[in-house]
Amino acid sequence: MRWYRCVTLDVSIWQFDSYKLVAGANPSASPWRRNHVEQAAALSEEMSAPPPNARLSMLSPARIALVIVAALPAWIAFDVLIPSRTDFRQFDPVATGRLDADMWRSYYERRRARLFWQLARSLRVQFNAGFWESLPIAYRAAKAAFTFKDGRSRDDYARALPDLERYFSAISDLSLTPFNPRTAARDELEWWIIRREPQLHTTADWQRLIAAVAAEIYGIPAERLTDYARLRVEAMVLRDERGSNTTEQDWSEITSLLERSWSELAAAVRPQEPTALRAPVSLYSRCAIAIRRLRA
Fold first, then answer.
1. Which tens digits make up the pLDDT trace of 45-89?
2. Long-range CB pairs of 232-241, under 8 A, 24+ apart, other chains included
3. What angle do CA 184, 287, 163 make, to 5 degrees?
4. pTM
5. CB-based burial label for 241 (10 Å; 0-12, 13-18, 19+)
């Protein structure tokens, strides 16, 4: 019926042009003529107005998808190659402890994909990494973990070191206070190894190395992290004692120990005065970090 309305409009406009002179010049014009003029004017305004869904048509699913596809590569590149430095001392210790327990479980159950996503999540929670930024870093950590898991000798274990160094180097790039990634990687791998050498090392050696890694990352004396390391080792001992017979109740206890452990670390590194979570990075530093990540 659209065509009929258009024809009617054309006729009405012609009549409107004819009758408006009569109606305007002659106040006593017939009511029928005045009514027809008013209807023609209203119909003219209706037909000249834009369709009510004209703006909505600009937000069609195809247009939205096109915008997302165009913006996604820029977001990924910005997140991965242009980092910002953050204050590692500000994090959620309870969430970090739960993620730590979840990652242990995924590691022992050989769930590689789940461990990868949990590692990425932990990087965002503990070190304030961006979403896309966390993925390549998590990949390095997961690769190192399973390279070590499949090893049987120190030579095999050493093959995990390059990925650990890249992992800690990427973390250092995120920190307001960069640290030595090689030292952190070496100590991290060493406590992994000595856990498999119970005849040569005690749990005190585990605690020493665990505290040393955290001390390197957070830039504080290892002596202040004794309780953090002790609780983490208690969780490890419980898991080792249960082995493949670890129950849900055991995992709940392990999670509780790790939550307490990370809470002790958070208390030890907490700044005395409030500080900004993020800080600007110089153009030179951004370029240097981007080049390192591309090479990695």
1. 655 555 555 555 556 777 777 777 766 676 666 666 666 778 898
2. 232/207, 232/257, 232/258, 232/261, 233/203, 233/206, 233/207, 235/101, 235/104, 235/261, 236/195, 236/203, 236/206, 237/203, 239/104, 239/108, 240/195
3. 30
4. 0.70
5. exposed
Q: Parallel, antiparallel, or unpaired: how do β-strands 278-279 and 85-86 relate?
A: antiparallel
User: Rounded CA gap, 271 and 273, in Å?
Assistant: 5
- How many CA atoms lie less than 13 Å away from 167 in the CB half-sphere? 24
pLDDT in tens, 8-19: 444 444 444 444
Q: What gap in Å lies between CA 143 and CA 127, rounded to an integer?
A: 19
Question: What average pLDDT does the chain have?
Answer: 81
**pLDDT at residue number 249:** 97
Output the pLDDT for position 195: 93
Region 134-144 average pLDDT? 95
Give me the amino acid identity at 85: R
Quick one: CA dihedral 183, 188, 189, 190, positive or negative? Answer: positive
Residue type, position 106, single letter? S
Residue for token pair 């022992």: 108
Q: What does the angle CA 214 – CA 219 – CA 225 come to, to the nearest 5 degrees?
A: 45
* Angle between helix 61-81 and helix 283-295 axes, rounded to 10 deg: 100
